[in-house]
Amino acid sequence: MIRMAKKMEKAAIKSSGFDFIRLGFALFFLVAVLTYSFLSSGHIPNNMFLAIAALFGAYMAMNIGANDVANNVGPSVGSKALTMGGAIVIAAIFEGAGAFIAGGDVVKTIKKGIIDINAFGTNVDPFIWAMIAALLAAALWLNFATMMKAPVSTTHSIVGGVMGAGIAAAGFTIVSWGTMGQIAASWIISPVIGGVIAAIFLYAIKKTIIFQNDKVAAARKWVPIFVAIMSWAFMTYLTLKGLKKIWPSIVDIFVFLPDEKTPSFLTASIFGLIVAVIVYIIMNKTVAKRATNLHNTRDSINLLFTVPLIFAAALLSFAHGANDVANAIGPLAAINDAVITGGISAKAGIPLWVMAVGALGIALGLALYGPKLIRTVGSEITELDQMRAFSVAMAAAITVIIASQLGLPVSSTHIAVGGIFGVGFLREYLESTGQVERIEKQQINIEDEKRVLRAYSSELITLEEKTDKSKADYERIVDLYKAIDQEEERIKAAKKRIKSVEKVKYVKRDAVKKIIAAWVITVPASAVLSAAIFFMIRGIVL
């Protein structure tokens, strides 16, 4: 008992020591950002607001890394295609690269156009206060969600923050309620589409490979096709979402490309198709070589999806860094522009130091606090292997492509988690079809056992009522008692088997309820918190 207590004490000390180290790194980064922004803008009026905004922007970026990036690498870690350390390194590198390379030179100061900046008129101060409040509120909500191990949308967090601060500053008329309605619709659209597409791909893999007698031969034929489809989807996705901000520079280098400000779906699809053909040729040769060492088992076939999953995690991280870094630096860029120019603009340029705050903050937040959410996404919703994780990654890319062409608002977080729900519920459905047969067989067995039991009981009653029993009758009575006990045990065992079959759940319901609740309250929670912070700032300043 004493030894156990000492072990627990050592574990607690070790854990708390690591927590202090993480906190130390985080505080060092925040202080460095605050110091740099304050000293580099000392000649500018309102530079204190800019320094505070930079601090909150850095805090927001770290929370994006801690919460949102888990959706890109969680399935790969959960399926053991990547180790936790490997996933963090890959995600940190590609998130940062996506932010720096494709994050763009200009961002919209108001995310998704949810409020009308004209309502501020020429009054810059309330606008700056509103953006600071939005940043801090979104970051605080993400921090809380991460503590609760709930993957939520960082976009929805900043949208709620901007909306709440906007209402506090200029009233309810400032909000574009049609846009907010679309965002609310994405709570349903994103996970449903992601879940359906992930389930379709997993079922296709099972049908064409796993359910075949010769799994190795089926894998040689179909794995290159599935990976090629994934390559097309990711190249198209990356071109549409990750390269759109540097597309003019690409067009200048490759003059044969169409002269477009942003890549069209047709251009992105052609890019994807070219890459898919190349990948198919490579995978066809690779799988043919590896087939000689494969066994005719699911686990062996699973290994063929490991390398594609690593590429998927990297590409998803790159696209995420290019797009979602704006959630941290959009309001910061708006404040920087307002402080320097003294005006309010719908779009603002991004200084290199602002981009660095976003990119480094995301990478640092992932490294320090990302593992908690990575484990949640990767293993605490449903059990993932490489095939299931591959299907989730496919869903993430294809859903964004479909949604962008249909003009549907979607959340990458909701898509990824919805994809995990989808593969888990598909497993339950496929299992339940076999369960029905097993339950029916058990029920038939129970009825047969009951008929035998009734026959034994009837015979026993007849013998016990007999007045002139012979020795054989007494022996038969003893045998009947034993037989009845055995039949009752068989019936009990059969009923237990039915209950155990009925209890099979591959998706953890508590996790589903917690995550969906967090999704629903993200926007209103951020909005209320942001409004309160805005009033607090205004009260302090005025």
Please describe what this structure looks like.
It comes from Sulfurovum xiamenensis. It is a single chain. It is built from 18 helices and 2 strands. The chain has helices at residues 2-40, 47-67, 70-78, 84-102, 124-147, 154-170, 177-210, 215-242, 247-253, 265-290, 298-302, 306-324, 326-341, 352-379, 386-406, 412-465, 471-502, 509-541; strands spanning 106-108, 347-349. It has a two-stranded antiparallel sheet. It is elongated, with a radius of gyration of 30 Å.
Arrangement of strands in the largest sheet: 1-2
Rg calculated over all Cα atoms: 30 Å
Largest sheet: 2 strands, antiparallel
* CA-CA gap between termini: 60 Å
The shape, in one word, is: elongated
Q: Helix tally?
A: 18
Structural class assignment: mainly alpha
Mean pLDDT: 84
State the low-pLDDT regions, or none. Answer: none
Order of helices and strands: HHHHEHHHHHHHHHEHHHHH
**Beta-sheet strand percentage?**
under 5%
Query: What helical percentage do the residues reach?
Result: over 70%
Instruction: Please count the beta strands (DSSP E, at least 2 residues each).
Output: 2
